[in-house]
């Protein structure tokens, strides 16, 4: 007799496993761009905190039913104390 699909599927919560990066641990830490999302003074800011091709920039945004919407296409350069605070939170 053929078993039903429900009988052959095991409960995934019973598995004692962990995730491993597909290309290994060194590739998992080879991040080329780091984005930081913050909420400051009533405004949401997405910051480029680490990038080999872009300066540290910040973009104000809203969250809408269709996703993230930038308030302006031009970012604000994040220098000095603002940049240091972002890096410290990561």
Automatic annotation (TrEMBL):
Q: Name one GO cellular component term.
A: replication fork
Return the protein name.
DNA repair protein
Q: Which organism is it from?
A: Sesamum latifolium
Q: Which domain of life is it from?
A: Eukaryota
Q: Which InterPro entries does the record match to this protein?
A: P-loop_NTPase (IPR027417), RAD51B (IPR030548)
TM segments? 19-37
Q: Name one GO molecular function term.
A: four-way junction DNA binding
Provide a GO biological process annotation: double-strand break repair via homologous recombination
* Keywords for the protein's UniProt record, in alphabetical order: Membrane, Transmembrane, Transmembrane helix
């Amino acid at each position: 007799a053929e078993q039903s699909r429900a009988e052959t599927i095991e409960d995934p919560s019973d598995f004692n496993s962990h995730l491993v990066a597909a290309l290994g641990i060194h590739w998992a830490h080879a991040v080329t761009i780091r984005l930081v999302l913050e909420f400051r003074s009533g405004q949401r800011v997405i910051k480029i905190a680490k990038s080999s091709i872009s300066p540290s920039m910040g973009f104000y945004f809203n969250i809408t039913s269709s996703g993230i919407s930038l308030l302006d296409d031009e970012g604000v350069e994040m220098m000095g104390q603002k940049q240091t605070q972002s890096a410290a939170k990561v």
